[in-house]
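I have been asked to look over a protein record a colleague put together. This is what I was given:
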Amino acid sequence: MSFPPIKPTDSIMHLRSQHVEIQRNFALSSSILRAKNAFLLTIVFALATVSTASAQATTDPFTLADPFHLINSRPRMVIANPPVNGNFSGVTHSPPTNSLFVVDNGVSHIYEFDLNGLYRRTITTTGFEDAEGIAWMGGDQFAFLEEKATHISVLTIRPSTTSVHKTLLPPSSIIRPDLDPSDPSTGALNPTGGNTGLEGLAYDPLLDRFYVVKEKAAATPGDFGINVFSVERSGLANILFNPSVAHGSSPWPLTAMGTDVADVHFDPTTRNLLILSQETRRVIEVTLEGEVLGFRNQTGTQIEGLTFTPDRKTMFIVGESREFFRYESSPQLAAVIQPGATWKYRDDGSDQGTLWRERTFDDSGWAAGPAELGYGDLDERTTVRCGPLPTCTTANDATKYFRHEFDVDNPHRIEELKLGLQRDDGAAVYLNGVEIYRDTSLLPGAAFNHFANRAAAVNDPEEDFFVYVNVPASLLRSSGNVLAVEVHQFSATDLDLSFNAQLIARYAIVPEPSSAAIAAMALLAAGIVRYRRRHRRGR
């Protein structure tokens, strides 16, 4: 798995150029064999197009890593009898159960969820302090990390398990990572015992070794800063590399990509580490030698846990306030509009009527900026005007307008189109002039000076997450599409506004050519060669 450095790639986009190349290659053979092989050529051309498109969709070097498309997020993962102090801090995927196990360090629980974030069960953990990480080790074995105590405990969690007591674990199941296990007075990985200790845990099944990450440096002299350690079963720990120095051919050290680390995942296929930074909202891929291979910016308010499915095509991130994000990567998926795309916007409080929704509307006079757009939350990439007063405490505008123009490759092959919308407070969305979504808080035909219904308006934390709706793919054109969004506040004294959107297309799978088609292609190629030889001899 490899994250290319901020290089959006879409395997579907390459099909058009491949199609053109095939047409060129067949142009000569078509003219040569027009009289004799026109029918055969037509058949083989169609099959060759299918073959090339299928091969391209499965061999593109970025399809497993970039883009990962956010296809599901939940403002709060729903759990039975949720604790008041619930605080998700780690997650792992268990292949035997095909489910997620999530650590709650607020009340020392482990929760099991399905891959859509639906609750299955609770496992109470007793005797553990400040649990931060969990990693599946194989079968029904899991590694469990405590931050302040700096312990890794090996737990057995079966389908019938409802509780785990640390005091009942065999001594060999509790690992105490240390740079010098023979001298317990020196070399501990979290010497202060504070809340800047070990945050993330991963397991290497080949070497039977753990990888743990330290969150950041404490103020105490001698404490480690951001760091990555390997830990043997014996407890012997080693620093893998200096995270503040660039390694290999990468110009970036790990500390340049993230100001902290919250979790780590080990990919046994590439033998790379995927490190989650909560403060910078990034997933960073790094080799065991410290070379940063790439990174992805992520969504979430306080993301703390990271894991992948074994096929490396689905990524899960959980956050402290029980946030849940699911990302997918597939040659079939294409981000028609990325979550951080640049939008044209009108924020002067004027009445734009209805023509602004149309494809042909002239928005050349509008301002432009990348999402998230808004004001008041201090997490905006583009700040828009709140109203005529700079204090934003009164007389704020009711409505802001946003437009994004985009092209689509092969719209006829799109099987499913999904809109992801983040907004505060209420929004209506139009694709090529057709309304495709409206919040219940916003009345049909709401004018520019109409506010959203406060009782039904989106509130924290839902306003920080995407809502997903299906969209008719038949509305798309190959070029000149426009997604237009109006966002309404619920009052003139509302202190914040947020907007972001994405559009994800799922393309139809192109079937592999049959053996008969491949044979026909070979026969045609042989015929072309024989004709050229005869043609040369006849000159």
Observations:
- The first helix runs from residue 15 to 32.
- The helical segments are 15-32, 34-59, 254-257, 515-537.
- Confidence is low (pLDDT under 50) at residues 3-65.
- The first strand starts at residue 69 and ends at 74.
